[in-house]
Amino acid sequence: MLKKFLATLALGLAAFGFAETSFAQAASDAASAVVEAASAAAPAMEAASEAAAAAAPVINKGDTAWMMLSTLLVILMTVPGLALFYGGLVRAKNMLSVLMQVMVTFSLIVVLWAIYGYSLAFTEGNAFFGGFDRLFMKGLWDNVAGTFVPAATFSKGVYIPEIVFAAFQATFAGITCCLIVGAFAERIKFSAVLLFTTLWFTFSYAPIAHMVWYWMGPDAYAAADVVDAMNAKAGFIWQMGALDFAGGTVVHINAAVAGLVGSYMVGKRLGYGREAFTPHSLTLTMVGASLLWVGWFGFNAGSALEANSFAALAFINTLFATAAAVLAWCLGESLTKGKASMLGAASGAVAGLVAITPAAGNVGIVGALIIGLLAGFVCLWGVSGLKKMLGADDSLDVFGVHGVGGILGALLTGVFNSPNLGGPSAVADWVTVGMIAPDAYSIASQVLIQAKAVLITVVWSAVVSVIAFKLVDLVVGLRVTEEEEREGLDISSHGETAYHR
After folding, report:
1. How far apart are alpha carbons 134 and 449 in whole angstroms?
2. What tens digit of pLDDT does each residue of 275-327 get?
């Protein structure tokens, strides 16, 4: 019996072992089949995944955070930076009028930007004006995807929310219009400022911004056969190949020409040329200039639209060029007047900031230093020698600093963008994002393109400004009465004073 039991047990174990082996083999075969099938399907799945990724842009959180910070910095430049810089330069009886003009003008433009300005500047239309796709900021929320619409940056596949881009550009429009008020400070009607600003913003700022900065974005350049079609949809000056990193033409030259026209059409202040128009608080002017310098890092570095190496380049160039301009202006004053002044140092800082604006991410560090040094000397001449030649009462030297500095910076961008002079060069092919090679870069050709962009901006802004000022004069009048001007605009226009006597 025992032998029989043992024999049966052995047969059972053998059978179980065979079955287990068979099951394992079957499972192994099935697993191998699954692996083989998965391997065969992997390329198709990978392609589908890549297609899905391309179809659904992912917004970069770091870039978004940087752009929101940059937007705040530009607001800091304007209110309180520019307001205090300008306010300290006028006489005490006009301090609040300048603060009021800056703050209310900025607010007005931000509202107009939301209503129609953004759409006119940054949607597809023609080479000079955008369309109406973003009136009242419509279309910024994607109802199908349930998310905010992404906006392209300058790198393929990198996006930020379009609402952030729209807010950033709103601050640019706002500060540009505020720059103009310094040219005719102390004698213009408050209502005239607001009406002129509305007209000029609509017909000069928005179209110039569209001409210089509007394009279809890097991802639109998917293949060589679409390049011409994409270029044809861009702004007129962008199509020319002009380089303007953060607003040499759009902001500074544009505003400065409007200010110069305004200083002529509004007329000179009472007593101009006979009385001393001494700044009432250089302390406030210095504080304002310092806030401008701090905020300008958002203005320039933020224009990279990403927290990348070009933002870092614009950041350090803004630091170095401004410091160089301060020293140059002080040296120039010492050589011509025997003393360097606080007003000169503050003005030099602004001159450097203006000149480096179009070049910030387009030139190397040595180029930035040279631009800053030249800006200090050239803008000092702009507020002295050139101002006398023009014969205009540009109250706070808007053209002498922003016009002269902007033109200088725009032209020198074409020089120091050259990779042979330490510049990063420019994109030659947006399909591959390839840069112009050193042996192919032509300084003469790029400077000529820059000069054309400057000329277009000067003529466009001048024509619009003349028409706008004339219309405003016909509707509400440009200038306060002689009695009101003597009393000061703080009391006569706003019924208050900056300082209690």
Report:
1. 31
2. 889 999 999 999 999 999 999 999 999 999 999 999 999 999 999 999 999 99
Angle at 254 between CA 70 and CA 282, to 5 degrees: 65
Name the amino acid, one letter, at 475.
V
What's the CA angle centered on 222, arms 221 and 224, to 5 degrees?
80
Which amino acid is located at 205 in the chain? Y
* Burial environment of residue 231 by CB neighbours within 10 A (0 to 12, 13 to 18, 19 or more): middle
Calculate Rg over the CA atoms of the chain: 31
Task: Give dist(CA 201, CA 204) in Å, integer.
Answer: 6
How confident is the model at residue 188, as a pLDDT? 98
User: Which residues are within 8 A (CB) of 266 and not within 5 positions of it... i.e. 6 or more apart?
Assistant: 184, 187, 188, 469, 478, 479
Whether 280 and 322 have beta carbons less than 8 Å apart is answered as: no
Q: Domains in the chain, start-ordered, CATH in brackets? A: 61-494 (1.10.3430.10)
User: Which residues have a Cβ under 8 Å from the Cβ of 38 and sit 6 or more positions away?
Assistant: none
d(CA 255, CA 177): 7
Q: Compute CA 475 distance to the chain's CA centroid, rounded to the nearest angstrom.
A: 33
* Distance of alpha carbon 209 from alpha carbon 171, whole angstroms: 13
Contact between residue 109 and residue 201 where contact means Cβ atoms under 8 Å apart: yes
Alpha carbons 36 and 354: distance in angstroms, whole number:
64
Question: Residue 112's closest CA among 135, 131, 129?
Answer: 135
Cβ atoms of residues 277 and 125 within 8 Å: no
Sign of CA dihedral 396, 402, 407, 413: positive
CA dist 26 and 455 (Å) reads 81
User: Any idea which residue has 């300084």 for tokens?
Assistant: 443
What is the C-alpha separation between 382 and 362, in angstroms, rounded? 25
Give dist(CA 89, CA 286) in Å, integer.
10
Cβ-contact 363, 249 below 8 angstroms: no
The Cα–Cα gap between 164 and 179 comes to 23
Query: What's the chain's length in residues?
Result: 501
SS3 at position 449: helix
CA distance 32 to 458: 73
Q: Spell out the residues 6+ positions from residue 276 whose beta carbon is closer than 8 angstroms to its own.
A: none
Report pTM: 0.88
Angstrom distance (rounded) from CA 327 to CA 232: 44
458: left (phi over 0), alpha (psi -120 to 50) or beta: alpha
Cα separation, 79 vs 77, in Å, equals 6
Name which of 378, 436, 382 is nearest 412 in CA terms. 378
Could you report the per-residue pLDDT of 23-37, keeping only the tens digit for each?
Answer: 334 334 444 443 344
Residue reference for tokens 């009607």 = 189
